Amino acid sequence: MRRSTCEQNGMKAHMSVYHAINIPDGSPDHEMPRRNQIRYPKESYDGDAPLPQTITTCKNLHHPRGQRGFTIREVACLLGFPIDDQFAGNYRDRKTQIGNAVPPPISEAILRQCIKAMMETDGLPPSGTSILLCIYLSPL
Fold first, then answer.
1. Angle CA 110–20–130, to nearest 5
2. Comparison of pLDDT for 12 and 26, the residue scoring more
């Protein structure tokens, strides 16, 4: 089996669209608004590959089969939000919250680097990094 470039460089393999949007029925924000079904079908694409474009807006994003748009939960999962994160407000408000957020995996990577830099500056061993991450990343 051919390994991805990420795997060859010691990083995690990419996540496919289908893997990211494998969401259990009944999950919050996974309902399909009626207006999400208009202007379809669109061109389908390979759902076993990474998303074919960067998510900057939900405008031209659609499900790999091309028959509908993504639900709020699917967009959140594509951006790396945990399945149990909840968003408040109407459909547009929830879409805006997700679109304006820094994706959690990016936030965590930035936090890791900030903690590492602060610990190096203070002359502390890197072993304490995981303890600080647990404190910062634990739910309030």
1. 30
2. 26
Domain that holds residue 92: 1-101
Q: Can you give the three-state secondary structure of 74-133, one letter per residue?
A: HHHHHCCCCCCCCCCCCHHHHHHHHHHCCCHHHHHHHHHHHHHHHHHHCCCCHHHHHHHH
How far is 73 from 48, CA to CA, in rounded Å? 19
Examine the domain organization and report whether 85 and 27 are in the same domain: yes
Give rounded-to-5 percent helix, strand, coil for the chain: 40, 0, 60
Which secondary-structure segment (H or E) carries 136? helix 129-137
Domain count, the chain: 2
List, for residues 16-61, the tens digit of each pLDDT value. 888 888 888 778 777 776 665 556 678 888 888 877 666 655 566 7
34 and 9 in one domain?
Answer: yes
